[in-house]
Amino acid sequence: VTLVDGLQTIGTSVFEGCSQLQKLLLPNSVKEMGESVCSGCNGMTQLTLSTSTEFTIIPLRTFASCTSLTEITIPPNVKTIGDNAFSSCKGITSLKLPSNLESIGGSAFNNCESLKGSLVIPNKIKYLHNYIFFNCALDGTLTLPDGLLTIENNAFYGCPFQGELHLPKSLLSIGENAFLSGNFTGDLVLP
């Protein structure tokens, strides 16, 4: 589906559960989307998001359970990724978070079982919420920002990171099971 240029808003659940939807191209005129726009579109293999400077939020459950989606490019102007936005997108293999990102909701990428490699958390992120990367296959290094305050429960549960992990001096709390079952291999550097 290629949406017409000039379209500015996409409502809640517009394509939810459309299992035959294979490709979605959002024009750069899109400024906002509702929740669950493509949730459960398990046949979708290609997604192009708006690069409008006003497109700053990927809402709650927007692309949850799009199991055939293998790659996503989050535009540089996105500041917020909502709860469960990409949860259970089991085909996604890599992820680069934009440097302007300020907030990632709970369970945003949970059960993205094929998500591998290294992960850099942007500098503006202060909280890593519950289950944010739960059960991902992230097997590279994890880079945490210096201003990070909290890593909540089960945030990286099951992620087999390796290399050197530096916990920032700003960190105030680490929740239960935050790194459980990850078989982390490497050096943990405490502040």
Summarize the structure.
Helix content is 0%, strand content 19%. It has strands at 9-10, 23-25, 32-33, 46-48, 57-58, 80-81, 103-104, 119-120, 127-128, 142-143, 150-151, 162-166, 173-174, 185-189. The model has no long low-confidence stretch (mean pLDDT 95).
Distance between the termini: 49 Å
The helix/strand series, from N terminus to C terminus, equals EEEEEEEEEEEEEE
Task: Name the strands of the widest sheet in spatial order.
Answer: 5-6-7
Largest sheet: 3 strands, parallel
C-alpha Rg, in Å?
16 Å
**Mean pLDDT across every amino acid position:** 95
Number of separate helices: 0
Q: Which structural class do the helices and strands define?
A: mainly beta
**Helix residue percentage:** under 10%
Strand content: 15-25%
Q: What overall form do the CA principal axes indicate?
A: globular
What does this structure look like?
The protein is mainly β and 191 residues long. The protein has no helices and 14 strands. The protein is globular, with a radius of gyration of 16 Å.
